[in-house]
Design the sequence.
């Protein structure tokens, strides 16, 4: 897994601010990003975008996931057991994956749907870890929605 949970640098924050992200629940602009899950080699980011996402609730936990400079929107639910001293076991449901069609266009056409799903799974697994990586995380995926491709952007 190449994703790491990190404190974001000023350079990372500048890059992310260009997208104009907002909290998907409150619609307020996200201007400060403290922590994110990053694969620096592939320039992929996972950022929280509001919500709850606990199993049994109606409010999903939203994430922006950036691949090849294209932000996707994830709608997720999770449940877990354990703690940072004993390790964490987490189960995820990804109920919606909104993907701008331009991700599959031109230079980005080399990425398959399966690769997108694997990147999402890796990023969500790393999201559960403490920044110092001091515990084990066992993440499983109960359900993963098919990718929903559309024209337009996830940030409006």
Sequence:
């Amino acid at each position: 897994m190449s994703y790491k949970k990190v404190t974001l640098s000023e350079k990372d924050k500048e890059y992310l601010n260009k997208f104009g992200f907002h909290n998907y629940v409150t619609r307020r602009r996200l201007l400060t990003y403290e922590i994110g899950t990053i694969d620096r080699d592939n320039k992929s980011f996972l950022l929280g975008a509001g919500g709850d996402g606990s199993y049994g609730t109606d409010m999903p936990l939203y994430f922006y996931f950036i691949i090849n400079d294209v932000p996707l929107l994830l709608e997720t639910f999770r449940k877990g057991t354990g703690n940072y001293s004993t390790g964490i076991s987490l189960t995820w449901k990804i109920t919606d994956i909104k993907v701008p069609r331009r991700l599959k266009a031109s230079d980005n056409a080399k990425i398959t749907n399966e690769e997108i799903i694997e990147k999402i799974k890796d990023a969500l697994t790393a999201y559960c870890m403490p920044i110092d990586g001091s515990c084990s995380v066992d993440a499983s995926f109960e359900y993963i929605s098919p990718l929903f491709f559309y024209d337009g952007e996830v940030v409006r």
About this structure: The CA atoms of residues 45 and 66 lie 5 Å apart. Helices lie at 10-17, 113-127.
